[in-house]
Design goal:
- The complex is a heterotrimer of chains A (245), B (182) and C (359).
- With 245 residues, chain A is α/β, with parallel strands linked by helices.
- Chain A contains 10 helices and 9 strands.
- Chain B has 182 residues and is α/β, with parallel strands linked by helices.
- Chain B has a single domain, classed as Pyruvate-ferredoxin Oxidoreductase, domain 3.
- Chain B has 6 helices and 6 strands.
- The longest helix of chain B has 20 residues.
- Chain C has 2 domains: 234 residues, Thiamin diphosphate (ThDP)-binding fold, Pyr/PP domains (Rossmann fold), CATH 3.40.50.970; 113 residues, 3-Layer(aba) Sandwich (Rossmann fold), CATH 3.40.50.
- Chain C is built from 12 helices and 15 strands.
- In chain C, strand 11, helix 9 and strand 12 form a beta-alpha-beta unit.
- The termini of chain C are far apart.
- Classes of the chains: A alpha/beta (245), B alpha/beta (182), C alpha/beta (359).
- Chains in contact: A-C, B-C.
- Chains A and C meet through strand 1, strand 2, helix 3 and helix 5 of A and helix 3, helix 4 and strand 9 of C.
């Protein structure tokens, strides 16, 4: 029988993420993978801005907290000078797909040998639920009170699709964390990405579809259904690129 | 003794390279030298200018308003900088291209068709070295030997013909310059 | 072994950085500093370092932020417009207490301004290099040689203070070629890595973390520590050159390229019998307040601020120390028009002979 243990990389402290927020689950998955790969001590966690910045309170591994959107740039400086460390950045959708678009695309295009985990919950959580580049058409936020209108705000950005057009990245995949199957696949995807990095193969990108019960104004269970009905049909899970073999 | 030079012309005429080689040669001879390029946004064909100061003492200001020697490779440069030449200075023009009338009667004018002379030697690119040869012949600012050494270093990775051409250009220039020696 | 070379200011900075132990550079092309990244793009790999051409100034300074956190001696360079973009990252370096070297080879401004040399970034460099009220030590060398010396020691200050260091030099000095004597290569080993660095190589057994974000009582303490550090700089780290001050009735204050042009004019005026001297700040921050404050104002009749920018930017710092004990004059060229020896001579002479108004 499998034994349930606390991940060694997660601090022995209560989580400050909202109840039902899938950031907690994503954190747990990454930590478990680090344990399984024996990379906890060797890992370097590049912490971005947004709710993800709360990670400075929840991790035991070494971290560098960086400016909004710049995690792939900072990770470049880290990895180029210390290639032996397992480097990953955990970025939200505003951080990665809006203010940090140049940094993520350019790091991916250079084929930097680190892993970016992209938590896509279609909103700016920490600042109070404004429209994100990934907010769905019609979705209500504090800056799209009548729902996102593509006439004035364009369409939700599909980052896996964009990044997989580049030559250099070796692994690009999207998973939804609203089902046990999705969670299992996501963990395997993160592990594959980290292993590819350890093998020196190049840039790896794992997008995790997550939720925001607080700013979506739903119960946690409602968010999981909403994801099935709305998020997953637009942001299709799957492996977009795999050159790891 | 502090002497200043302005090399002027258009991009591609070897202006900058002439300035650097002269300054490097001065340094080789134990003098002090500064070289300051004036850079523009155009990569080709724009105006090119550099200022070289050579002195026995450490150089304080590398930005003289007026120069002791003006080397003008075309009409545009000549007109733009003619007034910057100090009285008693040397105006050296590339007569192949500088056709405008010289308005100064307080300077030594040396007009040499260096483009044509370089073509006679076999390569238009050697025009700037002929000009430097003229300067060296007329002023003794650096020695022929030290300058030849700079050329050897500059062209060490090129075919031997390139160095030979430039040394011939130097000799040709010096011969012309000596006729104008004060 | 030291060695003499005829080098461009920009290349001299790059080579001095390598010899100082710099092993990471990220930057973005901008005139008039391109020789720095160009040189380091081949030079750093030769010594086992890394060079990255960033997708922007912003990305570049954040790459430096990442490398600096690993204890690697790191730098970026740019010119005014790019330094504005780097402002965010420089502020984060200060906040996260990371050492790094930032080089500004300045040009005319504001905006895209001019690619020609100017000293138009004094205020940005000394007062607000980014948001949040921090300072960096600012060095303003006036020759390729002094640039080498300053860059060679820059990380010693940056690591001592855990704070970025700025070298501010205009496009003239960046592009001038002159003789430099290069210092020997500093051989740094893993033992030299700062204890706070995030590398595993120093055998740390506790969590390494570096952050530019703090909760309120901690941040106030950090702000206060920075304040103490700035005061200590003023006591211990001011670098200033004085020239012929003993009997001076007029004192020029000038830094960088302006100081060289001014000195030539002053020498000429001295030869004509004028009692004039010069104060040349080498560190713009900390500013040599005391040198200006302690002049004998019963003798000094006027201070002349000469800068290659209009209006003069250092003037307020000078005026605070003069405290209305004598008039302060200014002369400058701007927008890519260069100072020259005769122009400066004429302007100073005009002031000395009473032809110029105060201010």
């Amino acid at each position: 029988m499998a034994e349930y243990k606390r991940s060694t990389q997660i601090a022995d402290a209560p989580s400050g993420y909202c109840p039902g927020c899938l950031h907690s689950l994503a954190t747990r998955l990454i930590s478990d993978v680090l344990d399984e790969l024996g990379q906890g001590d060797n890992s370097l966690n590049v912490i971005s801005v947004g709710c993800s910045a709360l990670n400075i309170l929840y991790w035991n591994n070494d971290f560098l907290s960086v400016a909004h959107g710049r995690a792939p740039a900072a990770a470049t400086g880290i990895k180029r000078t210390n290639p032996e460390r397992l480097v990953f950045a955990y970025q939200g959708d505003g951080d990665l797909a809006a203010i940090g678009l140049a940094e993520i695309m350019s790091a991916a295009n250079r084929g930097e040998n680190f892993t970016v985990i992209f938590a896509n919950n279609q909103t700016y959580g920490m600042t109070g639920g404004q429209m994100a580049p990934t907010t769905l058409i019609g979705q209500k936020t504090t800056t799209t009170v009548y729902g996102r209108d593509p006439q004035t705000t364009g369409y939700p950005m599909k980052m896996c699709e964009l990044i997989s057009t580049l030559e250099a990245p070796v692994y690009v995949a999207r998973f939804a964390l609203n089902s046990p199957k999705g969670v299992r696949e996501a963990k395997a995807g993160i592990k594959k990405a980290f292993q590819a990095q350890l093998d020196g193969k190049g840039f790896t990108f794992v997008e995790l579809l997550t939720n925001c019960p607080t700013n979506w104004h739903m119960t946690p269970l409602q968010t999981l259904d909403y994801m099935n009905m709305n998020t997953i049909p637009y942001f299709k899970p799957g492996v977009y690129k795999d050159k790891t073999e | 003794m502090k002497t200043s030079f302005v090399f002027s012309g258009s991009g591609g005429q070897g202006i900058m390279s002439a300035g650097i080689t002269l300054a490097q040669t001065a340094m080789r001879m134990g003098k002090h030298a500064t070289y300051l390029p004036e850079y523009g946004p155009q990569q080709r064909g724009g105006s090119a200018k550099c200022t070289v100061v050579i002195s026995d003492e450490p150089i304080i200001s590398p930005l003289p308003r007026r120069c002791d020697n003006l080397i003008a490779m075309n009409n545009l440069a000549f007109r733009r900088f003619e007034e910057d030449l100090k009285p008693g200075g040397i105006l050296l023009t590339n007569a192949s291209l500088v056709t405008d009338e010289v308005n100064r009667d307080d300077v030594t004018v040396i007009a040499a068709a260096v483009d044509d002379l370089a073509l006679e030697l076999g390569n238009a690119k050697a025009a700037n070295i002929i000009l430097l040869g003229i300067l060296i012949g007329a002023t003794d600012i650096v020695s022929k030997e030290a300058f030849a050494q700079s050329l050897e270093e500059k062209f060490k990775s090129k075919a031997p013909e390139v160095l030979a051409l430039n040394l011939a250009a130097l000799d040709k220039g010096i011969a012309i310059g000596q006729q104008h020696k004060a | 072994m030291s060695e003499k070379r005829f080098m461009k200011g920009n290349e001299a900075i790059a080579e001095a950085a390598v010899r100082a132990g710099c092993r990471f550079f990220a930057g973005y092309p901008i005139t008039p500093q391109n020789e720095i990244p160009e040189y380091l793009s081949w030079r750093l790999p030769e010594v086992g370092g890394a060079y990255v051409q960033g997708e922007s100034e912003i990305a570049s300074v954040n790459m430096v932020y990442g490398a600096a956190a690993m204890g690697t001696r790191s730098m970026t360079s740019s010119s005014g417009p790019g330094i504005s973009l780097k402002a965010e990252g420089i502020s984060y370096l200060a906040s996260a207490m990371l050492p790094a070297l930032i080089v500004n080879i300045s040009r005319g401004g504001p905006g895209l301004g001019s690619i020609q040399p100017a000293q138009s970034d004094y205020l940005q460099a000394t007062k607000a290099l980014g948001h949040g009220g921090f300072h960096a030590m600012v060095f303003a060398p006036n020759s390729a040689q002094e640039a080498v010396n300053v860059v060679y020691n820059a990380w010693d200050y940056a690591e001592r203070d855990r704070n970025p260091v700025l070298v501010l030099m205009d496009g003239c000095l960046g592009n001038i070629m002159e003789e430099v004597e290069l210092p020997p290569m500093k051989e740094l080993s893993d033992e030299d890595l700062p204890e706070w660095s995030l590398t595993r190589r120093n055998g740390r057994d506790y969590q390494g973390n570096i952050t530019p974000i703090y909760t309120e009582p901690i941040l106030e303490g950090i702000n206060a520590m920075a304040g103490e550090m700035y005061k200590a700089w003023e006591e211990e780290d001011v670098q200033v050159e004085t020239y012929e001050l003993d009997d001076a009735e007029y004192v020029v204050v000038a830094y960088g390229i302006a100081s060289r042009v001014a000195k030539e004019a002053i020498m000429e005026l001295r030869a004509e019998g004028y009692k004039i001297g010069m104060i040349r700040p080498i560190t713009l921050f900390p500013f040599p307040k005391k040198t200006i404050h302690d002049l004998d104002y019963s003798r000094v009749k006027g201070i002349i601020d000469i800068e290659m920018t209009i209006p003069a930017q250092m003037r307020e710092d000078i005026e605070l120390q003069v405290a209305e004990r004598c008039p302060v004059y200014e002369y400058g060229r701007s927008g890519g028009c260069l100072l020259d020896d005769e122009g400066v001579y004429d302007a100073i002479k005009d002031i000395l002979t009473g032809g110029a108004d105060n201010g």
